Amino acid sequence: MTTDVPLQLLGGLTAREFLRDYWQKKPLLIRQAIPDFESPVSPDELAGLALEEEVESRLVIEHGERPWELRRGPFAEDAFGQLPEHDWTLLVQAVDQFVPEVAELLKQFNFLPSWRIDDVMVSFAAPGGGVGPHYDNYDVFLLQAHGQRRWRIGQMCDADSALLEHSDLRILADFAQTDEWVLEPGDMLYLPPRLAHFGTAEDDCMTYSVGFRAPSAAEVLTHFTDFLAQFLPDEERYSDAGTTPTADPHQIQRDALDRLKALLAEHMGDERLLLTWFGQFMTEPRYPELIAGTEVDDDEFLAAIEQGAVLVRNPSARMAWSEVDVGLVLFASGQSRLLPANLKDLLRLICAADALHADNLGQWLADEEGRKLLCELVKQGSLEFADE
Ligand code: SIN
Ligand code: CO
Question: How many whole angstroms from 2 Cα to the centroid of ligand 1?
């Protein structure tokens, strides 16, 4: 992708300028980021999604059974008819996995790594509806999709910021407003992590939140060390060959710490394992149960493609690839495969193409490794045969 072309999506900034000056640093309001944007999902369709078992949804009712009541979906058909006229919000996660036109929108964010993007949450709010002043630990682009929403932004927060007691939600006790705007369809607000914000619907309104993934430091350390530990034999231990007599046997001396630091550095610095863990972690699907593989053998697979079958990425799958000294690694929905370097163009195609078929796979169908990889991805469920 080109990084030095002014982008309408970023209000005329280039991707490079946006990443340098705003990303993870400060908010940016972009009027008509997507001119004349029309939501591909209607409020009724959103409510329909919230009835589905596999869809993650929430209702926030400001004056419910208690202040800021949170109800979790899936909801019964009559749940929405019983709501008040105003001051409630329905939030549906990962709409990009269920509505292809919403997934399509994400292509506009390709100046950021796809493995950093988490999902597109879509909210519908009745007039006055909102989820209260809060902060998120992730970057978010808030695209106004329908109606008007008033956004207020405030202070930077952290784990010490006071929260309201007795609330189902993490609502800030104090909100120090610094700015306020009313967003129209097509307008977009970028917010860096931890910035307090507070959106309220001016009328029936829909907002799309493009949210990002960033593991916490605690997650990196606990998950990576768990991953590493699988490869370490019990026999490998703290060792102190060559130690010298101590003046006081009860004292832990500096050299013990140095030995521990060396042990940690040796393993924590293993770049191949770090990459393997990270790629697997960042491509872990949000809903693993939606990645169901198809049993197919090599010959059946090839015959199907040659007869015109089309492969698509499972909308719930996540993919990334990387180079290592001995070739390439493909990460697909939490799994990794080491592959020969000559498959690079195939990996790019698998990660990016809307559809894979005999025409664009061409030579790869004759490549044994390439064909095996495609077939394995179908068996794993990251790729699937498109419906006729
Ligand atoms: C919303 O769309 O109502 C909430 C989005 C957010 O504040 O993170
Ligand atoms: Co938020």
Answer: 30
Q: Cα–Cα distance between 288 and 79 in angstroms, integer?
A: 28
Claim to verify: residue 88 and residue 194 sit in the same structural domain: yes
Please, which residues have CB less than 5 A from ligand 2, an ion?
136
3-state secondary structure 96-162: HHCCHHHHHHHHHHCCCCHHHEEEEEEEEECCCCCCCCECCCCCEEEEEEECCEEEEEEEECCCCCC
Q: In which domain, by residue range, is 306 found?
A: 288-385
User: Residues enclosing ligand 1, CB less than 6 A?
Assistant: 89, 123, 125, 130-131, 136, 140, 197, 199, 207, 209
Give the atom of ligand 1 at the shortest distance from the alpha carbon of 140: 8
Q: How many domains does the chain have?
A: 3
Q: Is residue 374 part of a domain?
A: yes
pTM: 0.95
pLDDT tens digits along 301-333 = 999 999 999 999 999 999 999 999 999 999 999
The neighbouring-strand residues paired with 124 are 90, 206
Do residue 43 and residue 116 come from a single domain?
yes
| pLDDT tens-place string over residues 211-263 | 999 999 999 999 999 999 999 999 999 999 999 999 999 999 999 999 999 99
Verify that 111 and 170 share a domain, yes or no. yes
Residues 349 and 363 in one domain: yes
CATH of the domain at 358: 3.40.366.30
- Is 243 a member of any domain? no
Distances (CA, A) of 98 to 95, 190, 290, 356: 5, 24, 11, 20
Residues 29 and 63 reside in one and the same domain:
yes
